[in-house]
Specification:
Helices cover about 40% and strands about 15% of the residues. α1 packs across α7 (about 180-190) and α9 (about 235-245) runs antiparallel to α10 (about 255-270). It has 13 helices and 13 strands.
Length: about 300
């Protein structure tokens, strides 16, 4: 497989950090494009540079020419940043135009999460915006890969990290595909540089377990601990998806309440955290030799279970 030159926007983020490390580990060239160096991103940028990445400062990320210049010599652009309304509606279209202008082979938008292509319009505000962006992407003529990692252990085993109680949602028997963030980054790095994935979706599907399975594991490893539990029914999720406002009340993330309940609806009511459409390749079939971290490891680890 030929080595690529991958530009990453968001190289110090939650997915971008292990993605960048994975790309470098696989021997690809990496250019991390940033608005500037700051106290927050400097340590991770320094780590990337130590491993061989190049950092390009592009102060105006909303200017097509500026971003295109920063992409000089690259093959692929990955947008690994939070999928906010502003990013999807304003930033990604600029980055897409810049990638086309720079002659890149592939654009990888921020799809890290639920399988947007398997959804219908109206299933959730965030996903509707992403689906509209897909039309721009497909019409642009550039190659693409849509990478869907499903859930991340920190948020889904079972919502231990960011809630006061063990919180469950909707249908407890729906399969939840969830993985360790380091595995997600490495599989993403392999997926977006693989010729087989050009103009395809990739679904990470190594670990599938229901919320009932997660709770049973927790009980197995911590039988005497007095966990507190809270459940939000499917009916409540549907009501909040339709009627919640634009406040941002969640402990983690920048989604509005309406957006967040739309995400919960997709995951826990209609079961589309993962999807397997005709255009979707399974990571387990692309990389059958890869061994993912299993959920038993974090759920038996007191640091994971009890430390925020």
């Amino acid at each position: 497989m030929s080595k690529k030159h991958v530009a990453v926007i968001g190289a110090t983020g939650q997915v971008g950090t292990p993605l960048t490390r994975g790309l470098l580990k696989e021997g690809h060239q990496v250019t991390a494009i940033v608005r500037g160096r700051s106290q927050d991103n400097a340590p991770k940028l320094a780590d990337h540079e130590t491993l061989g990445a190049k950092v390009v400062v592009c102060p105006n990320m909303q200017n097509v020419d500026s971003v295109a210049y920063a992409l000089t010599g690259c093959d692929t652009l990955v947008a690994s940043v939070p999928a906010t309304k502003t990013v999807i509606l304003e930033s990604e279209p600029v980055w897409l135009k810049a990638a086309v202008k720079a002659g890149l082979e592939r654009f990888v938008p921020n799809e890290f999460g639920c399988h947007t292509r398997a959804l219908e319009m109206g299933d959730g505000e965030i996903f509707d915006r992403k689906k509209r962006f897909h039309e721009l992407l497909f019409d642009s003529g550039i190659g693409w890969t849509l990478f869907y990692n499903g859930g991340i252990f920190d948020y889904f085993l079972p919502n231990l990290r960011f809630f006061r109680k063990i919180t469950t949602f909707g249908n407890l028997d729906l399969p939840i595909y969830t993985h360790d963030i380091e595995d997600i980054g490495y599989i993403a790095a392999r997926s977006i540089t693989d010729d087989r994935t050009l103009n395809k979706c990739v679904q990470v599907d190594y670990n599938a377990l229901t919320q009932h399975d997660m709770l049973a594991m927790l009980k197995k490893y911590w039988p005497d601990y007095p966990f507190e539990y809270e459940h939000f029914s499917s009916e409540y999720i549907i009501e909040m998806k339709e009627n919640a406002g634009d406040d941002i009340s969640a402990k983690k993330g920048a989604e509005t309440d309406k957006e967040r309940w739309g995400i919960n609806y997709v995951i826990y009511v209609i079961g589309k955290l993962a999807g397997f459409t005709e255009e979707t390749l399974r990571a387990t079939e692309l990389f059958p030799e890869y061994v993912c971290k299993r959920p038993e490891a974090p759920l038996s680890d007191p640091k994971f279970v009890f430390e925020e």
